[in-house]
Amino acid sequence: MSIKIYHNPRCSKSRKTLEIIREAGTEPTIVLYLQDTPSAVEILNITKKLGRPVAELLRRGEREFKDANDLPDLADDTALAAWVEKHPIVLERPIIVDTDSGRAVVGRPPENVKELLS
Fold it and tell me: Looking at residue 91, what DSSP letter applies?
């Protein structure tokens, strides 16, 4: 099993999810997505693994989302993924991907990660 977590260490849910992964005996690849921003292509690949549109992975309460004057149509996954690449703070966190199986979950609640670990 090869686990990757898109992580924000300032987020309690992200820290708890990372703790659950480690308690299961797995050391994940940690992507600090605010510094190492996923590309639009990566965002689209993640959403395919999640089976969700990009719009469902947006933190709509973030100021960057609420104040955006360049926000594309929320139904346009390609344009929205490109926008998220420029504004990674609006990406839901944490996102955990099992790169071996191609499955992914959002760690809200953190216990969601157990789906990938079993």
Answer: B
CA–CA separation, 37 vs 71, rounded Å? 18
**How many whole angstroms separate alpha carbon 84 and alpha carbon 38?**
9
- Long-range CB contacts for residues 98-101, cutoff 8 Å, separation at least 24: 98/1, 98/2, 98/3, 99/2, 99/3, 99/4, 100/1, 100/2, 101/1
The residue from 6, 7, 11, 16 that is catalytic is 11
Q: What confidence tens digit (pLDDT) does each residue in 2-24 have? A: 999 999 999 999 999 999 999 99
Six token digits for residue 26: 């797995």
Told to judge if 105 belongs to the known catalytic residues of this protein, a careful annotator would answer no
The domains found in the chain, sorted by start residue, are 3-117 (3.40.30.10)
